[in-house]
Amino acid sequence: MRVAHNPTEIQQSLGTLRKQKSIAFVPTMGNLHDGHLKLIAKARELADIVVTSIYVNPLQFGPEEDFDTYPRTFEEDAKKCQASGVDFIFHPDNLYTQDGPKVTLCVDTSLSVPLCGSKRPGHFNGVATVVNLLFNIVQPDFALFGEKDWQQLVIIRRMVQDLHMPVTIVGVPTQRESDGLAMSSRNRYLTPDERLRAASLSRCLHTIRQGFHDGESDSKLLLERGRNVLAGADIEPEYLEICDEETLEPLPRLSRSMRARAFVAARIGKARLIDNMPLYTMEAINS
Ligand code: AMP
User: Fold this and answer.
1) Least C-beta-crowded within 10 Å: which of 31, 62, 152, 242?
2) How far away, in angstroms, is 34 Cα from ligand 1 center?
3) What domain count does the chain have?
4) In terms of domains, do 113 and 240 share one?
């Protein structure tokens, strides 16, 4: 495994290899956990060469957010990458021009404002810009993203489609702790008590999914049941919604044929956590 610290280094390393071999790319902000490693394992299955980037992208953090305190654990991350069969880590200090980026991508408000967008203005423009930039540097055949950040996955898929980017986007299901909490680098901000309460986020989504499976089609009533689960853990959600998983538009009434997905975000102590679950598949309902 090699570590490249700037765009030239990674481009030189991949330059001749890419002629004969396929490349799968896993962009991350580091502090790797089993969710990230699942993406890396899938990348390993798909391509000859696996590249992981570790870069805490300033452009996607708001002024009040945790850019400065975001966990940076490169040594441990590198060991995990090595053990998981990563070929190259791309670990740049900074990806932007000295005076800051003057040209960035702008995501349509229909996708950037719902759900996380309203509380994180500019976040998805920052994500789209850095992913575009990383794609230009790495030029992968495949790029893997977690379903945990569903809105991000939808936006990246749309970016690749709309801008005709020559890369295949692969979504990977959410990796969870044994009590259902979606793995996240931000879980480490939780105190032991908050950690226990945080499991109610996925319980809330399960309750909604079970309610739908049992025949309830009124989203308002399903969401009320979900809210009750959260209230039991003293959690007031930032949002709790059932939306079409592609357009992200709220769905007031549900049917089996809809691609409906429940989404939740909440602040618990210092952590802002998100989760989502599909409502439509039997497989998902039984898991
Ligand atoms: P991050 O380092 O948080 O930017 O995440 C890097 C990638 O890992 C993104 O595509 C995330 O969606 C994905 N990811 C983060 N947590 C999980 C998880 N629990 N399960 C699956 N993928 C995840």
Assistant:
1) 62
2) 9
3) 2
4) no
Closest approach atom of ligand 1 to CA 147: 12
What CATH number corresponds to the domain at position 237? 3.30.1300.10
Q: Which domain holds residue 229?
A: 185-278
Indicate if ligand 1 lies below 6 Å from the C-beta of 35.
yes
Q: Specify the pLDDT at position 281.
A: 72
**For ligand 1, atom 19: residue with the closest CA:** 183
Quick check: CB of 180 below 6 Å from ligand 1?
no
Whole-prediction pTM: 0.96
Q: What is the pLDDT of residues 90-137, one digit of tens each?
A: 999 999 998 989 999 999 999 999 999 998 999 999 999 999 999 999
Are 114 and 41 part of one and the same domain? yes
CA of 40 to the centre of ligand 1 (A): 11
Distance from the alpha carbon of residue 97 to the mean position of ligand 1, in angstroms: 26
Q: Which atom of ligand 1 is nearest to the CA of 38?
A: 21
Position 286 in a domain: no
Q: From atom 22 of ligand 1, which residue's Cα is the shortest distance away?
A: 146
Say if CB 59 and CB 101 are below 8 A apart. yes
140 lines ligand 1 (CB under 6 A): no
Sheet holding 260-268, edge to edge: 237-244, 260-268, 271-278
Distance of alpha carbon 229 from alpha carbon 208, whole angstroms: 10
